[in-house]
Amino acid sequence: MAKPNKYDSEVETSAQFPVEQAPIRVTVDIVVFTVHDQALRVLLVERGIEPFLGLFALPGGFVLAGETLEQAAFRELREETGTAEVYLEQLYTFGDPGRDPRGRVVTVAYYALVPSGRSPLLAGTDAASAAWFTVAELPKLAFDHAGILDYAVNRLRGKLEYSNVGYELLPEKFTLTALQVLHEAILGRKLDKRNFRRKVLGMGLLKPLKEKLATGRKPAELYSFRDQR
Amino acid sequence: MAKPNKYDSEVETSAQFPVEQAPIRVTVDIVVFTVHDQALRVLLVERGIEPFLGLFALPGGFVLAGETLEQAAFRELREETGTAEVYLEQLYTFGDPGRDPRGRVVTVAYYALVPSGRSPLLAGTDAASAAWFTVAELPKLAFDHAGILDYAVNRLRGKLEYSNVGYELLPEKFTLTALQVLHEAILGRKLDKRNFRRKVLGMGLLKPLKEKLATGRKPAELYSFRDQR
DNA sequence: GAAATAGTGTCTGTTAGACACTATCAG
DNA sequence: CTGATAGTGTCTAACAGACACTATTTC
Q: Are A13 and A20 in contact (CB under 8 A)?
């Protein structure tokens, strides 16, 4: 547990803020999920600078003046992955003193879901390299990012149990088997095919298309989602 | 929608932080719930200073150097209510630019549950006065606090549906009727007595005491919770 | 014995999990 | 016709909601 730098508790005094406060920096960090090869994966970037040089970290960065937290998250996402057309939701805010050895940093964590099939990779300016890792085989992570990632995985699993989320991870057209594989990858366990199909079809959110996917064996019916929610 | 102050985007350059960032202040705001007179109530403080002088606001304040976000929330809670032995959980972080006309302020919102019966009131140093309001009859609130409060009420209702939460709001010994009244106050609707009792007793979290509460009519059995979770 | 609150059981519809075989296509 | 994946139905247990009367106490 590294102690944070000692700040002078007197900040440049804004005429309008009577209260003194040590400077705190605010960042966003994003747990970017995708599903590929039947596994739930997260995007990590290798740190090119100290501290934690060489370790992997969640993509993220400072919140800039004038942008909302969500805009900051989308911006970082775009810088890191090249796309921002993804589902994004705020997770939790981590702000223990000492979580960054350079000083006090409060980070607002988000998670994002990028559809399988388009999982682009662009090394950001401050990242030596970026790569997808399965949540089962994670490298050593910088800062408190392992805890953030754990939190995100649990949230994602929770949402799946009682809601229609996770649909943001599939391409526009998909088979029921693909949807089931997705759920199994997120939950980390096998599901019964008949029960699964009964449940998702019963929700009424799927629209059967007139198309079949020629998969090499018996062609599978393709589906899409009815509306964007 | 007040525009935030224009900040110079160049901050005093920390030797260790290569990244420039406009100064952002970090606060915690707390939605303090209690139940009294069969109604769900929140603690609000009347603002004694500009901006929003005279309006009511959630108790809260700046995060100080060296303390965790949760510690900051507990500290504010203690300053405002005199006690910090309450359930506290992080809600969501609000950081839109312009939410505070004095400058950029990101607030980490928490909610707290204080047991009915001990709902103390201490006017804090920066609050002209504090008072409990039912969530059905709220005054005009400062900043974006109305939205934060809404969010908290929904979260509390959600937790009640599928978990044992809300139990933090009762005194140590209580009757099943009191527990039902509590649930009804939070949910804002009536519940069936028999179904309610079946459900809560079926959870196995309640311990029937050997005592009865002399209520004037037929005495009611007293219960307590089995363990602290 | 009247007024007030405590306490109790059944029926019904929905949901979730366990479980195994048939259908269709490529080669 | 073999191999592989798609697709389909029943039974059962648990849970949730609707619904009305009896029990105990004070005054």
A: yes
Residues of A in contact with B106 (CB under 8 A): 26, 63, 69, 106, 108
Using the beta-carbon criterion (under 8 Å), do A65 and B95 form an inter-chain contact?
Answer: no
Q: Provide the whole-model pTM.
A: 0.87
State the Cα–Cα distance between residues B10 and B113, nearest whole angstrom. Answer: 41
Distance from CA of B218 to the nearest CA of A (A): 42
Give the residue from A89, A11, A151, A104 showing the smallest Cα distance to B7.
A11
Cβ neighbours of residue A108 closer than 8 Å, sequence gap 6 or more = A26, A27, A28, A29, A63, A69, A73, A90, A93, B93, B95, B106
Inter-chain residue contact A106 with B69, CB threshold 8 Å: yes
- Which residue gives the smallest C-alpha to C1' distance to D4? A217
Per-residue pLDDT of chain A (229 residues; tens, 9 = 90+): 444 443 333 444 444 666 566 789 999 999 999 988 888 999 999 998 889 999 999 999 999 999 999 999 999 999 888 777 889 999 999 999 999 999 999 999 999 999 876 666 654 444 458 889 999 899 999 999 999 999 999 999 988 877 766 678 888 899 999 999 999 999 989 999 999 999 999 988 899 998 888 777 899 999 998 875 4
Please state, in angstroms and rounded to a whole number, the distance separating the CA atoms of residues B168 and B200: 15
The size of chain A, in residues, is 229
Q: Which of B21, B90, B96 sits opposite A25 (nearest CB)?
A: B21
- Between A11, A16, A103, which is nearest B17 by CB? A103
Rounded Cα gap, residues A202 and A116, in angstroms: 24
Q: Percent helix, strand and coil across chain B, each rounded to 5?
A: 25, 30, 45
Q: Is B226 exposed, middle or buried (0-12, 13-18, 19+ CB in 10 A)?
A: exposed
- In B, which residues are within 8 Å of A4 by CB distance? 65-66
